[in-house]
Each structure stands twice: as C-alpha cells, then as structure tokens.
Amino acid sequence: MSTASLARSEYAPENRSWYKRNEIRVTPWLFLAPAILFFLVYVIIPIFQSFEISLFSWDGLGPREYIGTENYVELWDDPAFYTSLKNNLIWLILYLLAIPAGLFIALFLNQTVFGIRLYKSLFFFPFVISQVVVGLVFTWFYDPTFGLFNTIIGWVGLGPINVLGDPTYVTYGIIAAGLWPQTAYCMILYLTGLNAVDPEQIEAARLDGAKGWKMLWYVVVPQLKPATFIAFVVTIIGALRSFDLISVMTNGGPFGESRVLSFYMFEVALSEYGFRMGYGAAIAVVLFIIMLFFIAYFLYSMYRDERGR
C-alpha cells in the first residue's frame, strides 16, 4: 500500500478516535466543564442543601433534629420576618428606578461633545468602588451633626433629620445609597446596547418624522431589549439579596426596622439570635422562591418575545 493510501486510511472517519470524530461538539463542553463544576458545587448543591436543612432544628455543629415544616410555621407568625419581607418589597420597587435612570444617563453620555470622557468616568466611578465604601460614604452623608444631607436641607429651612436613626426614613436612605452604584451598572449596560442600535432604523424613523420621545420609545428602546432584560434581572437580584449596605450603615437598626430577608437570615443563623441554621435556611428558601418567580417571569417574557418574531 502506498504512503498516500496509508495517510488516507488514517484520516478516514471510521479509523479516527471518538474524540477526533466529535471534536467540534465536545471541545466547547470541555472548556465549559470547570465553570459548570463550580456552578454545581457552589450554587446548585447548596440550594438543595438549604431546602434540606430548613426541615431540621440545627445549630450548625451538633446533631440535627428533624422537625418537618415547623420552621416555616414559625415564619408565618414571626413579625420580624414580615418587617423584612416588607422592606424587601420596598427595595424591589424603588431599586428598579436604577433602570430608567441608567438609560437616560447612557443617552446623555452617548454623544460626541467636549469632555464626554470625563463625564463617563465620573458616572462610571460608583460601579467600581466597594459597597462597603458606598455605605460608609452615605453614613457620613446622612450624619445629623456634620453630614452634607442635613446641610443641604438646612438651606431650605428644614431641620436636621437623623435618616439612619429614624424607622420612617432608614430603609429609603439605604436604598438611595444602593441606587448610586446600581444606576452606574445599568448605565454601562445601556451604553453597550446603544452601540449596537441600527443607525439605518434611526435614519428611517427620522425620515418618517419620528423624534424625541417617539424616537426613543418606538425605535431605540425596542433595540435595547437584551440590555433591559439583563438590567432587570441583575437589579431584582440585587434588591432581594441586599445585605452589605444594611450591615455597614445600620446593622439592621433602628429596632430592626431596616432588616431585609438576607440580613434577617444572617441574624438568626450566624448572629445574636443563636445559630438557628434550620430557621435561617427556611428564610433562604423563601428568598430563593421569590427570586425564582421574578427571574422565571422575565425569562418567559423574553422567550415569548423571541418566538413572536
């Protein structure tokens, strides 16, 4: 047999190894395998473990005692749980303001004017700093003795307000602090999306007489749906798992009025309430179900829109 014939037989499909025959299909999965493994170990498995632990009375170290759904029954009658749930709903509603705010800032920054790079840097800055730093900055900002907030409202004749010490204002004050970096994140998403807007559609709409709000609502916003979807999902998850700002700014106070579910879960499982891992896991399960509901809704909406095209 000639050398050419040997080479042809070596590369014939039936003589190649299984990997060589399926290389195009298998190689992407090999690259994804480490990420999938980490996702399973650190996300999926802990979710199921939380469901399991919520059915036990356990301090995290000693033996576990199976109690069924007693942790969930206790949640039903727990006023601190309802306070946390109410605050989470307030976070959810007001935190969504970051999306339109981010869009309008992105529209302003998506221009070629003098100094636009400096403006972009200033608006981008909150996104790159730690949430702990944001919490400390706004704690000083709200301070009733030397804070800038009380100085500003003093100019219009309003008295000093202890925002973080008043149960009426504390949640809104923390949400305002959280909106600062979240708006910057949404702005970045929309700036990226605006770069992909089809200029031919913009020009065609201008020829048809569209401008201003009509141009924005009927031409630009529909092309920003992928960015809007990501902004909604990330903002909802951020609102529901808000923890660090509350821990830094109020530690759940005053009188527990700034608690949210994630912080209350930490308190009952790992803090002063006595290492009640089962009860904390029950709160985590409730929080997970709320998140799952919103994310599933947006995924379904996006899937429905894609099928309608």
Q: Which key phrases capture this entry?
A:
309 residues; mainly alpha; MetI-like fold; 16 helices; 1% strand; flat; MetI-like_sf; transmembrane helix; transport; membrane
Quickly give the structural class: mainly alpha
CATH class: Mainly Alpha
The CATH architecture assignment turns out to be Orthogonal Bundle
Instruction: Give the N-terminus to C-terminus distance in angstroms.
Output: 57 Å
Low-confidence stretches: none
How large, in whole angstroms, is the Cα Rg?
A: 26 Å
| Largest sheet: number of strands, sense, barrel closure | 2 strands, antiparallel
- What is the residue-mean pLDDT, rounded to a whole number? 86
The number of domains is 1
Rough outline: flat
Helix content bin:
over 70%
Number of helices: 16
Number of DSSP strand runs:
2
Membrane topology: Multi-pass membrane protein
Keywords: Cell membrane, Membrane, Transmembrane, Transmembrane helix, Transport
Subcellular location: Cell membrane
Pfam families: BPD_transp_1
Detailed description of the structure:
This protein is an all-alpha fold. It has one domain (about 80-309): Orthogonal Bundle (MetI-like fold), CATH 1.10.3720. About 70% of the residues lie in helices and about 0% in strands. The chain is built from 16 helices and 2 strands. Strands 1-2 form a two-stranded antiparallel sheet. A hairpin with a 7-residue loop joins strand 1 (about 55) and strand 2. It is flat and about 70 Å long. The mean pLDDT is about 85. It is found in: Cell membrane.
